[in-house]
Amino acid sequence: MGRVSQQQAEENRRRVVETAARLFREKGTHLSVADLMKASGLTHGGFYKQFASKDALIDEATAHAFAELTQLHAAGLERHAGQRDEARQTLIDNYLSVEHRDNPADGCPAAALAADMAREPADSEARRVYTEGVGDFAAALADELADGKADEKADGLVRLSTMLGALVLSRATKGSPLSEEILDSARAALIRGLREPSSSS
User: Which of 4, 6, 21, 188 has the most Cβ atoms closer than 10 angstroms to its Cβ?
Assistant: First the structure.
């Protein structure tokens, strides 16, 4: 059998990164290389032709997951161009939805990977990529939602912390009435906060 072409090798690498980004969010970064390659439809032996280590794949898959999140936000803003209030509520409603709770593989990497990243060494590349992604997400929330308040960065961090915390807790309590109560309470509080005038206005 002939060697894999460069184009095919690039396609295989892309497939592994995309698959890993989904599976790490769904099952955690402890997933084995063999399982990842099987899910990608490739052989285990091909992994080390593409990646120096599993850690290198975690780094790349984490970056890919946050890039997807950024694209999703950009698309949402484009759909609601000129309708700031509607864009705000849609963002919160989608993030704090039962659908998002039940589909971590396609959801927010900040929430899905938090526990895994907390176990990574502080100086690891995966932790750096994750931290940068969280910071960018918080900044995007501030830009989209803050209405020019004095401390927009803090507003973004508070919104992100509320949304992420509620999502993680709702997943951990799934199957009980408390799970949806958490989502509903956080959603109502965030939307109420958007509608209340700032103290500086």
Answer: 21
